[in-house]
Amino acid sequence: MNIKQVNSSNEHLVIILTGEMDADGCSKIRPDLEAVTQQTQIHIVLDISGISFIDSSGIGAIVFLFKRLKEQQRTMGIIGVQGQPKELMTLLRIDSAIPLNSGHDQELASCV
Fold this sequence. Notes:
Elements: E1 2-7, E2 12-21, H1 23-36, E3 43-54, H2 56-71, E4 75-79, H3 83-91, E5 100-101
Parallel strand pairs: 2-3, 3-4, 4-5
Antiparallel strand pairs: 1-2
């Protein structure tokens, strides 16, 4: 599992995740996700187009980040939702709390 931060603007931060969001992968990026909560951008966008698999650990990491950002009155959206991750997120109704976009064009406005 890999994580890369891309500053899109002073207000938006795009986080690109690749690999598998399972227990092992999430444990590797936990400090990086925690660091996102210390950033100054108001809108955070997770690009998960490079995620091939997600399980409860991955969902937990996303929800944890979302809750921390919400406490700070910041927003989060997810782009590149496809395949197995999309199926699980739809089943768990993640989209009822976090805006999801299946596009890969990093359309920030539609996610936050």
